[in-house]
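Subject: for your reference before the review

Hello V.,

The reviewers asked for a structural picture of the protein, and I figured it would be easier to keep everything in one thread rather than splitting it across files. Below is the amino acid sequence we used in the manuscript, unchanged from the supplementary table.
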Amino acid sequence: MFHETVTHASGESRGHASEAHGLLLLQRALKRGHAIEVTPAGGVSITWSLMGHGGRAVVRSIILAPHTPVGALTEDTVRDLAVIDSTGTARYDLRDGRRIITAGLFEIPALTTARYRARSLVTADRVDRVRLTLTARLGLLAREHQPGTDPVLCACGRLTVCPATAEEARSLTRRHRETVAAEFVGSLSAAFAAAVAAS
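And here is what came back from the structure prediction:
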């Protein structure tokens, strides 16, 4: 699901992380108060400081970049993903021999279903119940909090200030994104965590 890059005292390590491991890292980062920032690709950056040799603070990080970036999330895509996420009854079904996603009376056509699967926006359990992936959720959060223009520094509208400098604007935006990312991780349901662990 993710390419993982970890910075540490000896340099940098690269590897791969499953969706379950990515979720565990996010939950651990939240508990430890580390800075979390999502990326438009559906990834995440976790950073923290610790005291190094000579009493100087050093920054460490874990970066998770999705194997398949979420790509452009259009209004139609956002609407479909919201329906899948909100109903709890989304599942794969067949229409004319082709796989579609159904959620109550709502149906996502076969070609769109195939695109969502190919982009790793959705996944299903052994009985074809469909859910959003962690990368989809991270991508949606990043889309909701993309940069705005003065005096609205974030598309969500929650960060409206008139910073004195560009550096202050970047700092305020970064802190805002870290706050909403922490809120997001804290809001992930036990049912979602269980579904991820079972996949």
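For the response letter, the relevant points are probably these. The chain has a mean pLDDT of 92. The helical segments are 19-32, 75-87, 110-118, 134-144, 166-187, 190-198.

Happy to draft the paragraph if you're swamped.

O.
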